[in-house]
Amino acid sequence: MKKVSSALLPTIAIDRKASTPIHRQVYERYRAAIVEGTLRPGQRMPSTRLLATELGVSRIPILNAYAQLLAEGYFQSRVGAGTVVSLDVPDHVSLVQPRRTSQPQPGPRPVGRRPVTLPLPLGRNLPRGSGAFVVGQVASDQFPFQVWNGLVSRYCRSPRGQSLDYGDPMGSRRLREALSEYLRTARGVRCEADQIMIVSGSQQALDIASRVLLDHGSRVWMEEPGYRFARGVLRLNGCEIVPVPVDPEGLNVAAGIQRCRKARAALVTPSHQYPLGYTMSASRRLQLLDWAERTGAWIIEDDYDSEYRYENMPIGSLQGIDRNARVLYVGTFSKVLGPALRLGYLVIPNDLAGRFLEVRSSMDIGPATFFQAVLADFIREGHFSRHNRRMRMLYGERRTRLIECLREELGSAAEVLGGEAGMHLSVTLKGIRDHEVAQVAAQRKLWLSPLSASYCGKPQRQGFILGFGNVPVNEIEPAVRQLRSVLRT
Amino acid sequence: MKKVSSALLPTIAIDRKASTPIHRQVYERYRAAIVEGTLRPGQRMPSTRLLATELGVSRIPILNAYAQLLAEGYFQSRVGAGTVVSLDVPDHVSLVQPRRTSQPQPGPRPVGRRPVTLPLPLGRNLPRGSGAFVVGQVASDQFPFQVWNGLVSRYCRSPRGQSLDYGDPMGSRRLREALSEYLRTARGVRCEADQIMIVSGSQQALDIASRVLLDHGSRVWMEEPGYRFARGVLRLNGCEIVPVPVDPEGLNVAAGIQRCRKARAALVTPSHQYPLGYTMSASRRLQLLDWAERTGAWIIEDDYDSEYRYENMPIGSLQGIDRNARVLYVGTFSKVLGPALRLGYLVIPNDLAGRFLEVRSSMDIGPATFFQAVLADFIREGHFSRHNRRMRMLYGERRTRLIECLREELGSAAEVLGGEAGMHLSVTLKGIRDHEVAQVAAQRKLWLSPLSASYCGKPQRQGFILGFGNVPVNEIEPAVRQLRSVLRT
Description:
The structure is a homodimer. By secondary structure, chain A is of the alpha/beta class. Chain A has 15 helices and 14 strands. In chain A, strand 5 and strand 6 (250-251) form a beta hairpin. Chain A is globular, with a radius of gyration of 29 Å. The relative contact order of chain A is 0.12. At the A-B interface, helix 4, helix 6, helix 7, helix 9 and helix 11 of A face helix 1, helix 3, helix 4, helix 5 and helix 6 of B.
């Protein structure tokens, strides 16, 4: 019967030359596995027929062994489930101390000295819920599941969908071509498909870029405040972070030069500074490029949510005005299709593409093929642009409503920043401790990201990064009221 | 006669038939002119009315373009002077000739010093084809697509399938539970779901383990010959590789101790040594564990193809007999379901699980959710075991036929190694240069992996690793004949 074959076969070796009869060997192996906890109560055992075939022995000794194990209470027969490990293991078993991997003995356990300072992705203390105001969540009820699942099914049935081998280590050619067209047109990125590498999200892009371009001890400019996950990956790679202040024109290049002219690289979010939301001004962009060209530095441009811009047309990328091939452009599909997909991309200067590929190949060989193919179809058939446009309208409404509500409920106590683009904005508040407020709010299922966590040095601001991507417009007012009420406690 | 204005009109051509809207064209032309230095800081711009007339377009798109250029800081409004090019644009920018990103200028382009020695995944010179004798390919025509695609569709339609957010950074709980049961039962691995991390294949597992456990300069025992991709990831992490010879009992522990007793870690393939196929003997296993326990070293057990064993029952894992929680167990789904999926796993000692999670989170946040869920269903509903058993039969036939054919066609000139398990075996040949033979063979669409590439030092053997996973049994003889004919040329 089919259901029997779902039982896993244990590792038991039978020695035909041994003086111990086969039924005894089988019995002993199973008993030992149960005593040691390798087999668990309730776990299904293979049928005697299957096990006999598997071990290459007659079924008689197996039947005998099973009968013994049943008689002694190691096994049970359960209607509809065949033979299982007994749910109440006999008493004498508990006298044996199973040695568990989980309790290591003393002795040196040296781990690497690489600095790991990253708060866990979902916050060490703060859980990640769903809805108001989780950062980085997309409108899950607006996703075009029907179209997407249709493409999934179509791809499953296609001959291409039946290739099980590694794909192109740079990523699917079709996807990279569709993407280069999109990036040239919508983002002003100068690139060909050959320069694009598909990665598992912008975090991996930052990791790969760090491993190719930077050394242990390399100094890197980072926006202050900035994206805390980027701090984590830079530190993991042994880099020294040089925090450079951000003002309404974006990263203060002159301040960066003063602090550390010879930094090896700068990591910036020029389109929508994370977390304050400023757009880097033209003059700052040119100053930054000029610094990079003069000193031989690299610029990593994280263009993480440029798809959604509400008050002007999208700001062109920094990469597009770079004349010295100093900019590594990083993008992600997480803000459009959700982070579950784990797909992002890196646009690499031509002369570095080979080295990036070598480093990436040693990291994980290359990206999984399936959803790259589905996504390529999604872009090429126009669904991506259509969904983007629809979401820009929707997120625009949510953002406007959120700003209104914040003004109404919090008044002048709150400064709202960065609502011109993206799926989040920042609100700064005086006289609070944002971490503590966030803890309280989480108990009420209101999810706040403390602004202070974005600072590498001493936090200059307290407040919250509020994600509105996954908050329907009619839920915004109640959520802001709840925020106010948490602030008053 | 054009109206004379103090502002010069830049030469901007508007293409009314282009898909790019007019406001975007105007914006881009001006921005380019400023970046390229055609327009200088302080230079007056025409009024929007004049420019509209001049270009023969409505004033609306011109107003939009100007607003954008002002917002981004390319333009400034000056009282009495109208709109001018921003004074903050650095002067020298105008002296530089515009150049394409794709043709970087000279100047320092410092990249990291991390050693990258990995041959590209598909071989620097050798292409990867399909069929005889590509290593690491599964029988693509035997994959249970109907069952798999059914699970894919079912998951697409389920509410779980509609979550777009990050999943558990350790990997799907359901998958880890199904996997821990499988590993305990079929591989004798002692583990709970909490110790399992889902990764994108065994290569990423090695990378994460290296980043957690090793430092720049750490010395690591590696089997000689060994898995060349592992060399790549260790070198990328700055480790010093200590090649330790392999004999028919597996890694020679005494030789390792003699060469470098204080190595931080050893990377081994005890079930089926790659590439020679030996099984590590019980005494060597105990010696290795003893060395690790005495010196505080780690053991990374890469159990890459333990599912398929033909002559005995599966050999239990090294991890399962380790009483000191020194073994990191690495496995992959690539050998059962194909490498396209990019799914593997790491079993981590309990005391290290937190640190592994921190490092992994800074690398790529976590694994994509979709196929983890599908795979969990595939395992829980018994398809995984069933497919494994079916493939063991099939690969067993292919292996037997391959060994027969090699003996018939190559006779005593060839030594066949490692056919007891897995989806590949090795054949050593005297008096050939395996790299050169492989080049010639590739032109005839026969795919040979040179054995010499598996050596870190001077190759002690020449020959080939022959993958038979994706070679139907009736194609084996012709392929071996072709191999013979290539060897004779």
